Amino acid sequence: MKTLYLDTAYNQVIGICDERGQWLEIKESVGQRSSALLHSDLHKMCQSHGLRASDLKRVIYVAGPGFYTGLRIAYGIAQTMKLSGVDTRGLYSYEIPKLLGEQNYTWITKAYRGEVFVFESKNSQGSLMSEDDFLARDWSGKVYIHHPRALDDKMLAKLSTTQTTENLITQNFAKILPAVALVPEPALYYFRAPEDEFRPNP
Hints:
Blueprint: E1 2-7, E2 12-17, E3 23-29, H1 38-48, E4 56-62, H2 68-82, E5 87-91, H3 96-99, E6 106-112, E7 115-120, E8 125-130, H4 131-136, E9 143-145, H5 153-156, E10 163-164, H6 165-171, H7 173-180, H8 194-197
Parallel strand pairs: 1-4, 4-5, 6-9, 9-10
Antiparallel strand pairs: 1-2, 2-3, 6-7, 7-8
């Protein structure tokens, strides 16, 4: 079963793996225009490996945490393919270390509007905190981030590690794939409710 992987929570990562969970190809794109190229990138990727869209039998996508617009890109593709009978599965970025056996860690990414999203595995809870509170706190434990570009330099300097869950899943997809294939499709996890996300800054 060929699997399509999509992560549009921050950058855009698309990949296709074979039945063993080994990548046929994976590509990361950076910048606001990357979403406009997603369909053509996916088409080229399929062509280069002699695949048709109907050969993709499963889609796994990052369902958050993230911004409304970014998350809807991967979700929209997954739901469109679901109409054709494709199995769709989502996962949250902060779950990735746990799927690989990590028990005690924190996952962090910037949520803008002067806030940072923090998930702590010890209480299985995620929340927003102000950047000032983030900078005032000690982050000496095991910390994962979504991507280095998702934090400012001064925030990165507070962390003892900068291991990213974006790299973690792409480097360990074969190990994670069986677990993700068994879980129900989750709701999208937005940093904020859409009515708050699109409210103009004061």
